[in-house]
Amino acid sequence: MMVELGRMKRQTIEELCKENNEVLVRGAVDGIIGRVWVPQLGNSSYCLIVVGDFAYLMGLPPKGERALDLKTQIYQSAPRAYIYPQNGRWEDWLEEEFMGQTRLVSRYALRKDEHHFDSGLLKQYIESVPKGIRIKRIDDRLYHQALKEEWSRDLCANFEDEKHFQEKGFGYVALKGRELVAGCSAYGASEGMMEIEVDTRKDFRRQGLALACSAAFLLECLEKGIIPNWDAVNLQSVGLAEKLGYVYDREYQVYQLRELDEE
């Protein structure tokens, strides 16, 4: 059985993760977000980090019984996650241990260090929303409202509660009356950086609402000196990011476990 590390005990994986600058990894190491498992307390040779729909394998791949323990933990804690192996050894481990039960999926990276944001343009996006739509910063009430619906829960789900969200993250939503219809917020946070989450209710897509919420989020990031990281799940998300001023970097591949009914 693997051991889960509480938020205050994660200094033990700092060495394993020191070369990784991803927002979600750093946030987990810092005890801000996510869950972390190690084979034992004290000095561990590897760890599993899970933040929402993302899982990271760090350190040296295990063998024998410990490999089985890690596989079990992945099945239990990250069955649908995007799995990021730290290096080629972890790629080989995944393919050998899961024996055809994984698939490769594409994601798209936007540059972290060469953004060309135009504050004036971002403000225009906010001002261009359809009549009857308000863009509002997420407060405690909207935090709980976002969690109630499946499409919007990822806007806030990676934080412990509304206080934790307000302290370590923030976000903006589009409201039609009192209904929440789109949003952009911190999916996760680390020192000086935030990972972006963008969602729109199905019946309100293609109205510029995600663009407006994202613009409001980016303006606050710029004001506070926070680096907003955008990692896209598809080319539509890439297009949205580029409208906001991001620069496309590259397509890359990560692993997912195959669904039980998937051929």
Structure description:
The chain is α+β, with helices and mostly antiparallel strands and 263 residues long. It has 9 helices and 13 strands. The strands form 3 sheets. A 5-stranded mixed sheet has the order 1-2-3-4-5, sandwiched between helices. A hairpin with a 2-residue loop joins strand 8 (171-176) and strand 9 (179-190). Helix 5 runs antiparallel to helix 8 (209-224). The longest helix has 16 residues, at 209-224.
Largest sheet: 5 strands, mixed
β-strand percent reads 25-35%
Order of helices and strands: EHHEEEHEHEHEHHEEEHEEHE
Q: Uncertain runs with pLDDT below 50, 5 residues or more?
A: none
Distance between the termini: 30 Å
Mean pLDDT over the residues: 95
Describe the SSE topology.
Layout: E1 3-5, H1 14-17, H2 23-29, E2 35-38, E3 46-51, E4 54-59, H3 64-77, E5 82-85, H4 88-98, E6 102-110, H5 119-127, E7 133-137, H6 140-148, H7 162-168, E8 171-176, E9 179-190, E10 193-200, H8 209-224, E11 227-229, E12 231-232, H9 235-244, E13 248-257
Parallel strand pairs: 4-5, 10-11
Antiparallel strand pairs: 1-2, 2-3, 3-4, 6-12, 6-13, 7-8, 8-9, 9-10
In short:
With about 260 residues, the protein is an alpha+beta fold. It has 9 helices and 13 strands.
Main features:
five-stranded mixed beta sheet, 9 helices, 30% strand, elongated, 263 residues, 33% helix, 13 strands, alpha+beta
